[in-house]
Amino acid sequence: MTDFEDRWALVTGASSGLGSEFARQLAAEGAHLVLVARREDRLKALADELSRVHGVKTRVVSLDLSAPEAPGDLHRRLSEEGIAIDILVNNAGFGVHGPFLEIDWERERQMLELDIVALTDLTKRFARDMVARERGWILQVASIGAYQPSPTYASYSAAKSYVLNFGEALAHELRHTGVGVTVVSPGVTATEFLEVSGQQPTLYQRIMMMESVDVVRSALRALRRGRRSVIPGLGNAFVAWSLRFVPRRAMASIAERAMTLG
Question: How many CB atoms neighbour CB 8 within 10 A?
Answer without folding.
Answer: 19
